[in-house]
Every structure is written in structure tokens, then in C-alpha cells.
From TrEMBL, chain A:
Protein name as catalogued: G protein subunit beta 1 like
Gene Ontology biological process: DNA damage checkpoint signaling; social behavior
GO cellular component: cytoplasm; nucleus
PROSITE patterns noted in UniProt: WD_REPEATS_2, WD_REPEATS_REGION
Keyword presence, Cytoplasm: no
PANTHER family: GUANINE NUCLEOTIDE-BINDING PROTEIN SUBUNIT BETA-LIKE PROTEIN 1, TRANSDUCIN BETA-LIKE 3
One Pfam family in the UniProt entry: WD40
Organism of provenance: Strigops habroptila
Taxonomic lineage of the native organism: Eukaryota, Metazoa, Chordata, Craniata, Vertebrata
InterPro entries: WD40/YVTN_repeat-like_dom_sf (IPR015943), WD40_repeat_dom_sf (IPR036322), WD40_rpt (IPR001680)
From TrEMBL, chain B:
Protein name: TELO2-interacting protein 1 homolog
Keywords attached to this entry: Cytoplasm, Phosphoprotein, Ubl conjugation
Name of the gene this protein is made from: TTI1
Residue ranges of domain TTI1 N-terminal TPR in the record: 11-346
Family: Belongs to the tti1 family.
Claim: Lipid biosynthesis is one of the keywords in the record: no
SUPFAM superfamilies, alphabetized: ARM repeat
Record GO cellular component, one term: TORC1 complex
Organism: Strigops habroptila
Amino acid sequence: MALPPPDPQFVLRGTSAAVHTLHFSCGGQEPDVPILFSGSENGFIHVWNLKTHRVDTALDGHGRKSVYCVETMGDKTRLLSQGRDQRICLWDLAEGRTAVTDSVFTENVGFCRCSLLTVAQGRWLMAMAAKALEEVQVLELPSKTSVCTLKPEAGAKLGMPMCLKLWQLSSGSQPLLLAGYEDGSVVLWNLSMGKPLSQLACHQEPVMSLDFDSEKTKGISGSSEKVLSIWSLNEQQNLQVYKTHNLVNAGISDITIRPDKKIVATAGWDHRIRIFGWKKLKPLAVLDYHTATVHCVSFSNHKNPRERLLAAGSKDHRISIWSIYTQT
Amino acid sequence: MAVFDTPREAFGALRPACVRLTRAQTAENVWRLAARLAAVSGPALQELQEYVLFPLRFALRAPGPRRERLVQSAVRCIASVLAATAVRRPELLRELLSELCACLGPGPGPGPGAPAPPAEDVKLAVTEALHTLLHSASGDVVLSLYQPSTLPLLGFAVSLLLGLAEQERAKQLKVSALKCLQVLVLQCDCPEHQPLGDDEAQQCGDLFASFLPGISISLSRVVTGDIKQGHKPTVSAIRLFYLVVGLVMADAQLARVPKSKEKLPEKQSRISELMVHRGPDWSKSTAEKLSLLLHKMVEFSSVHPHWKVRLELVELVHHLLRNCSHSLGDSFTHLLKALVGLVNDESSEVQSRCNEVLRGIAEQRIIAQSRALADVLSENLHSLATALPRLMSSQDDTGKVSTLSLLLGYLKLLGPKINVVLNSASHLHRLSKALMQVLELDVTDVKIVEDRRWGCEGALQPGVQKGRCQKKYFRFFTEEKVFQLLQQVCRVLGYYGNLYLLVDHFMGLYSESATYRKQAAMVLNELIAGAAGVGVDVLQEREVSPNVDDLKGSVTSILDEYTDQANWYLITSIDTEEVSHEQRAVHHTGLPARAGGVCSTVLLPSPEPHATTRTMNSNIWQMCIQLEGVGCFAAVLGKEFRLLLLTALYPVLEKAGDKTLLVSETALGTLADMCEACGYGSVQLLINDNSDYLVNGISLGLRQLAQQPRASRVLDTMLRHSDASLLPLVEDVIQDVLSTLDQCYNSQASTFLRVLHSVMAALVQWFGSSYSEEQQQQSTEYQSRTSSQGPRAVTAQGMERFFLDYVRQKQMAEGDVSDTGDEEADEVPHLGKPEPNNCDTEGEAPLPSHAQLAKDVLERCIHLLSDRSLRVRLKVLDVLELCVMVLHPHGNHLLPMAHRAWPALVTRLIGDDPLAVLRAFKVLCTLAQKCGDFLRQRFSRDVLPKLTSSLLSQAPASARAGPVYNHTLAFKLQLAVLQGLGSLCEKLDMGESDLNKVADACLIYLSAKQPRKLQEAAQSVFLHLMAVDPDRTWLLLTETCCPHGYEPPHVSLRPVKLGGMGRQRHELTDNVLLLLERLRQRESAAQESPP
């Protein structure tokens, strides 16, 4: 008989608003405490100390508009956040500072999370939905110079980009972009040519979230339907549907593949977090704690595997922290 | 007083006496000389020293049988001369010594018959003289005595003196002989003597080595001799013993002894045979022999009744340890044992000296430097640990104290070397087993299990009371001292020992078997305290104190083990509520225990259906020890413990609400410790500041059925100690509670109702001020209204106005409204307008969160009002009342809820158990305060008839009943209804007919036959009725009984006839008269104070 699903290891309370995005920063050396960043609907980014389980600082930089993407750039002292005020802010948090050093005005009204890729020490590529509805713009950070603008062919009717994933096969190789669109298709873009390499209609409904495993060249996407779609990229760089997985309840708001590529976590509109084995998409657990839509799931990057965590943020203002490494 | 200062004068004075003495050796002559001597000054006498001494010596050597008196006086006189002068000639010293010694021996040969030994007086005089002689000789002169050539003479003296010390019976003489001997071996402790130089000491050591066997054997005999000889000789003998042994066996000297014997010049060859060569062989064999003697002496004197002897023993150990730690290595087994054992001597002098010595030893690192001694100690420790269990079960408490202090002493002495012992598995094993056995608790006391904590109101006192350990009862000892020693043993172990090793080992024992669990936990607690250096009494500082991280690591692992489900949730009572819930929960869910998870599927120790008192007692103690441990860890870590609050606070708080008195008390102590350690001023602050941690625990706990009662208990405690600032957190968790409750109305309702009750109580407390203010305001308003309404004095004008009003109203009632139509038209919209306005503004504003919470709770209460269990219904009614109070200021939310709750409430009021009726009535009263209008009609329709009829039907019963009736439920119900009805009528502003009903029902309770309390309650009803309608009440009362007639103010008016006039005194009379009087007072008071 299967084990009963575990309880959360801890629940972080106190954002006093729905939590939209989470990001761990646990890679530091011993004296550094592991940290979790959370972005919430009231425009605050909370910095959670995972030792005391309390908020260390609350960053306010998006004019009380919902923050829906938070990423660290390198270590935990540089932070990128994206909010509904159509701005992407770069933060300097070193030595306790809480200053916005730079910001990018996206002019995009959607809620497509940007995607960040480290291309070299201190250099990043960032893909974000652009002002024009169907376009995706790629910038180089920190210089903010535009690398390319990816515009679908006229008549493609993809709709707005919903989710983005920048990746490269190995470090130094050509970065590629996977984008999920409003019409349910996933498109692989070549950045240097600015041309789509492949397009795959995965869903009937808008793609809400996708993640991609560059080792197995396999990706997963979820939409507002009851289906998870797994697709793969063959040598000819064509996207193919590999498998679909039917869910009980419709609506996936976030999908994350664990950094070790063994399991996948999904955040469901049905208030549940689901864990699957990545290889065969075998359902492993349903984590039931939240009382409202789960908006995001995130895995920590702690050095010690036993201390790695899964965090989920929900509309019910809570962030649940789970320890599922000990089991799998 | 010296008269003769110059030698010449002195000579003149002394000469005759000396001459006379030389001629006739009589005691009288000696005395005469002595008298003269007294008048001669020291310097003068020095010149004449030998001159004066001559006749005296001559007298001693006088041929023929010795005359005791003469000898004695002569010796005394010599002594007095010597005391005043100094011996400057080595020959003189030698001669005098031998002459004096000769006096001690049996008389010289020529005397007839058996030579009688000299009398004691003489011996005493001689020993004293010897003493004086040796003191009067100056340094060089004395040293000249200690040449190989004088060995025979010295030997003679020594043996004589030893003989005296050993064989004489007179205490004084013994002491004197020993003292003299001490001087003779150059170990006098008077300050004039200069310490010997190294070479001289070496030389003397060589000489005295020859005497060592004799001296040591004789002295040991003195020491172990008859106890009746008193302590002084023993003390002196011990001192002399260690001085001599310390000199001869001194490590420093032995190290310098050449390999082979020195060749002495030829002529001294005979003497050189007497000399001993202190080579390695000699010292080894001597040490063996001395070891035997020492053993005997130590055995004997460590239990000597006189403390000075024991003190001297301490000195002996000290001296020998300092000087001969190598040469006498083997003896230290006994010596250290004695020393360590004396640490807890009953005499404080011995104790303190002993401690001092031990500290000295430790500080000088004698043990640490000498492997041999460390080996000896660890050997001792091992054998003691082996014997410990046996000793502990066989010895009485005093024996245990001494055994344990011995153990403690060894550990302290070993100091940092303890680790050598601990690293040996067998040592550690034995030691820990011994501790486990000794620390076994007595778990037979039933009282511990029986003692329950009642009520939860006073759960946590606001102030911090220092957590102190609960007094424990042990199986093998009762004395507190024994426990303290054991505590010290553990702490010292923790202080010096390798903490990781120890914690690991005892954790192993902790989890190994339930029998050791409590003891192991106790030891672990003390280890940590010791490691942090808390309350340890040690002899030497450790080299490295563990850093906070190590300590924290150990504490964290112990804490995890303690608060593990299997070790934390133990059955401590057969409380039906708790256990049945927990067991039921297990049955219900049938969840398998999940191994290893991070959190919490319940791992109840398989519910033993028949938990014996013994196991429960044992569990209770385990809980207490673990809680004490948590407190101790907090104290040790101080502010660092704040991080651990995350894991520790919730479990402790859980236990603070435990029903078992001992557990909850201990947990409270732990909380106090935590407060102090983490720098919180009070438990309240602690809880307040960490409520996020608690809320997390509660929220997770609520997810497990079996944990729910505990989680709710913690929430309960938390709520009682937090304030409104925590509302967001509380709200969060209450939502959890409500949703959990929604899932299991049947099984857990009573558990959660308790929580809801405390939530609502907290809300009332936090936000209730507005409520009470309002209430006050209302009542004052009401009073002013009533007083203004109250009829004026019956003046002619007043009466006139009254009648005019009456007529006008009557006209209006009959439809003749022509005049007054305008007025009314004005009034109606005026009244009508503000209400919808009011409603709108209130309805639009979002409900404050606490009120929303109350509303949510109220919603649940409505469902639960008709629960099957009476207990639940009662609780629900309580919660309902609180909800109403919180919702009080938000009328337009309260009224719909009241509307929904009404049917269920009515059922409670009219058709339920009397207890429920009672509570429901209380709720009704509270509800009435707010929704008067709303309730009036419903009340008079649904409830009042039932209430009045029950009052009426019960009245005869209560009138008949005896005093026991006061304790029945029926009585309480009557009382409650009567007490509440009055104010209810007033609040609801009831109509005439209802008031009549009430009055009718209550009137019979004014009967003197009714129980006193009911009468009073009925009076209160009428007092309220008076407030509503004084005239009617007056009329009603006077119908029953009217004390005086009323003269009509005008002849044109008809005389007043009231029903009660002229009646006989009957059962109602007294109360009615009282009420009428009160009514009169009210009226006159209203008259006096202008509106």
C-alpha cells in the first residue's frame, strides 16, 4: 500500500496576499542561511530565512502591483523581479541593501513570466513578452541591449506568449527559447536567426506553464485543461508529442522539473501539488494542504540533498514547504 | 627582671650555688641554683653557660642509684639554661644529647637490683629538655650532629623516643616524645628553623634512611593504636610519619642518589655498614613495605572519629603526593581513595582542606603528568564502577554517599584524562550501566497518576516562575545528597568528557530499552549542563570548552529524540476523553505508522488497553525528565535557543496543557526556563513572539485526527496568552480549525468547541470593550429614560395633565385623529428614515475580521446546537453567547444570524435537558440585549408560555421542598429563569399581556414558603417590572396586599378600593410590602432628582 502523503514540513504565513512566485537561494556556504524569495499579489517580495522561518526583509518595488516572477542572478545578492506594473526590476541585496539598481519597462500587459539564462559570468540573457501582443523580446543583462525580437509569422495566430523557457544544450552552445502560447502551442525559437525551429500544438487551451529538461531534451507543459503534455525534441530539432497525462482536475498554473531531473511538481488549480516521476510521468504523490489555487512550485538548490525542499505558494496566502527528498 | 646583667655580677651570684651543688647533689641545691638563674640575664648566662651546666651534668652522672627528684630537677634546670642560651659547641651538643638520652634509659648498670625505668615525670622532663636542647643549638652546630659518625648516637635517641611514643601511656609524654623526635629528624615546624638546603637534605635523607623501618613501623603502630589515646598523639605520629617518609623517599632525592654506594673512608667502615644506600632496589622494596603500612594507617585514620586526625591524613596524602609521587606510586591507590573519600567529610575543615589539596593536585597537573597516577585512578574508577551497582543496592544512604563521592572525586581528579577512560568501551559501559541502575526511579506512587490539573484558567501564571526540578523518588535511595552527587558525577563527565561520545552512548541507551530511558534522559540532561559548565564543581579548568555549535548540535539531536512522537506522546492517564479520542482516532484512520517521515503521522505507542498505573507513572516521569531537559538545554544555550524554539516550543506548550498535574507543572517550569534563556520577560511574551511557530504546529497538528485534541489545546493556551495584534495569524489557524471541524462534526466537535470557546473568549476580551461600554451606555441611558418617564409627584397639575393625555390617547385609539394627524405624520418619517440609512452604511462597510470570524463560528454553532451529546450542546451555547457578544456592534450581521439560530435555540429553551435550558436562557438574555425588538415577538410566542407554565407548575414543588432542594437542577432552573426573566422583560420591552403573564408566574414565588433565593429572584423580577411599568406593578402588588388606605384628594372622587386592602397577613405579605417600599423609594428618588 502506498504511504499516505506527507504533511508540509513547515508553512510560511504572513505575506497577507496571494503568493505568485517563489525562488530558493540555498547554494551559499555554511554561515549563509538558506533563503526563499516570494513574490505576492500586494507587490511585496518577501525574503524568508529558512532557518528561523521568518521574513528577514520585505522588498517593495512594484508599486503594490502583483509580483509574478522572482529570480536570483548568480548569488542571492542580485535579484530580478517582474511585476504587473510592467517593470522588471534588478535588485542589489548585498550587505542588507534593498535597492532597485535598474529596471526594464516591458510595456507588456500579460502575465508571462520572463526567463533568465546565464550565458557567462555576470552576463545573462532574459526573454520576456514584449509590448506587441505576440512578440517575445530577448535582452542581454545587465547591459539591457536587445538581442532579438521573436515575432511569429503573420497569420500564425499564436496569441500571446504565456510562458517562456530559455535554455542551451550545454554551456557555451547556442541558446534556444521555448515559448508556450495562448492557442496551446509550444514553439522552439532559434535566437540568432529569430526564426521558429519547430511548433507543436500541445493543448487546446493556453499553455500556462512549461519546463524543459535539456539533458533528455524532453519538456512538459500544462494548461487550463485536464492534460499534461510531454513532448520531446529530436535531433532535427522538431518537437514531438511524447506522451500526455490526464489529470483529475483541470488547471495547472506551474510546472517545475527538479534540478536532478528525477521528479516533476505541478501546481494545480484544484489546490493540490502533484508529484510525478519525470521518466515515465508516474504519479508519486498528491500533496494536499492549500485551501486555494496553488500558484507556483519551486525546488531548492541546497548543496546537501537531504536539506533540499519543495515550496509551493498559493492564493490562500500561504507558502507550504515540503521535504520530499527523503522519500524519493 | 634580670638583675645581673654582666657576666661578672652573674658569676658572683651563681658561683655559690654551683659550688654547693657540686658538693652535694641534692634536689634542693638544684632548686637553689635554678632560683638564682632566674635572676640572670640571657647574655650574661651565655658566658657562663658551660660553667653552670657543669654541676648540673655532674648531678646527672652522679654515681649510685639514681634519685628521681634530683634527675628531674636537674634536667629541668638544664632545660631552663638551654632555653636562655645557645649551644655553640658541637661537642657540647653531642655530650648533652647522649647524657640526656641516658637519663631516659634504665638506670646505669651498677645499681642493685632490677634497674627501674625512670618515672614518667622524669621522662617528660627529659624529652622536653631534649626538645629545648635541639632548639638551642644553632644551625651549624645542629648539622654537625648529622654526620655518619654520629649515627649510633642518633639511632639511640631515635629508638628511645620511639619507644616512649609507642609504649608510654601518658598522652602528654607521647606527644612530647613525638615532638622531640620531629625536631630530631630536622622536621620541626617552628619558624626559627631554616629549611634545609638540597645537599643537606640529601645527606640527612641518607642518614634517616637507616631509621626509616623503625620509625615507620613504630609510628604506624602509634597511629593504629588504641583509640583511647586521644587524637593528639595520632596526629603527631601521622605528621611525623609523612615528614620522615617524605624526606627519605623524596623523588627529588632519590633521583640524585648515585648508582653505587659511596665508599666512605676506612675508619668509618663500621659505621658505613649502618648506612643505607637508597638505590632503586632499596626504594622499591621500601615502597612496598610502606605501602602496606600506609594502607593500614589510611584505613584506620580515615574513619577516625576525631576530625583533626582526618585532617592530618589529608595532609599526609598531600605531602606524599607532592614529594613522593614516583617512589610511592603503588600506595596512591589507597591514598587517593582516602583523599577523595574525605571530600565529603562531615567536618567542614577537613572538607575544605581536602578540596584545596585536590585542587592543588589538579592545578599542578600531577595526575596529568604522571601516567602512573592516571592509570591508578582509572583502575580505581573501573573497579568502583564495577562494584557500584552492587554497592548501590546493598549500601545504606550514607554508604552510598561515600561511594559516590569517591566516584566523583576520581572523576574530578582525572579531569581531562577522563577521556582516556571513556574511550575504553568497557569502562564506559560499566559506568553507564551503574548510573542507569542507580538512577532507577520509583514508579509505584499512584498519586502522581491521580493528580490532575483541573480547569484550564490558571494554566500559565503571568509572571515567570523559575523552573525547578520536580522532586524525584528513586528506587535505591532516598537521600537528596545522593542524587546531588549523581548529578555532579554526570556533570563532571559532561564537563571533561568528549560530548559527542557521551551523548551518543547515552542516546543509545535511551533508545535501547524503555527501562533505561528515564535514567538515560536524566544523565543526558546533566551531561549537557555539565558540558556548558553549568553548576559543575571542578578542580581544574578544562583545556578547551566546547563551542556553542557543538553544544547546539548535541542539544538538537537530543531534542529531536525527545520530541519524537514515540517518546513524546505517552499515555499518562486513562482520562476517558483524551485516550478514547486518541485511540478512536487510530481506529478511525487506520493509518499505518509512517517510518521516518519529516512530520507526523501519529505514531502512538500501540494503545495498550490496560496501561497500568506503573507504566503511566513511569511515562509521567519520563515526560517530566524530558521537559526538564528541554528547560536545561534552553538555559545552557541562552539566546541561541531561540532558533530551537521552532521545534521545541510547540511540544512544550502541548504538555503545559496536559491534564496530569506533574507534567503540566514541569512544562510550565520549562517554559519559564525558556523565557529566561531567550530573554523574554514572561511566558506571554514568549508565546506572543513565537506564535507563528505555534500556529504552524497547530495547523499541521489539525491535519491529523489523533493530534487534533493536542493541537487545539496548544491553540487554546496560545490564545489565552496573545493579544489582538495576532489576529491575522489566529484568523488563519481558526479557518483551519473550522474547516477541520466541518469535516468531522461527529467525532471531534467537543474538542474543537473548546478551542472555539477560547477563540471567542479571546475575541471578546480583545474587542469586547466596545461591547461593555455600549452596555454601560445603554443602561445609563435606560436609567435616565426610565427616571424621566417616571411619574411625577401626584400634584393637581400632574394629575390634570395625566388625564388630558389619557383622554387624547383614548380619542386617538377610537379613530378621532383629526387634531393630531400632523404631529404623527411628522413623527413617522422621522423615525423611519434613520433606520435604513443605518443599515446601509453598516451593510456596506466590510465586516472587521474578528467579527467575520465570530460570524463563521456562529454559523457552526447553529449546526451544532442540536448535537446529540448534551456536553456539546452546552458548550455550543457558551460559544454562541460569546459570538453574540463579539457580533454585538454589528447588528445587521447579528440579526440574520440570530434569526437562523432562533429555532434551534427555542428547542433548547423548551424541550431540552434542564442544564441546557439554563444555558440557553443565559444566551437568550445576552441576545436580548442587542436584538430586543427582533426577539420580543418570538419570545412571547415561542418561549414565554413555556417558561411561565413551568414556573407555575414548579412553584408548589419548591414551596414544599426541604433544604436539599437547593441543590437540585429544578431549583437552579427556577432560579435562573427568575433571575433572568426580569431583565429580559426590561430589555425586550415586552407588551402588557406578556408582562402580566410574567408577573402572574412570579407572584407565587414571593411566597414565604419558597426557598429564600427564589424569593429574592422573584423580587428582582418585580423590581425590573417596576422599571418598565411602575404603575401597573404597583397595582398588581397592592391587589395582593395593601398596607394603608388611600384618601381621595377630593371628595368628588370615589374612594379607592384595592384588592389587597384589609387582608390578613399571609405568605406573600412580607415580600410585597418590601417591594412596595422599594417602589416608593424609587418614586421619591425620581422626584427629587430633576429629569
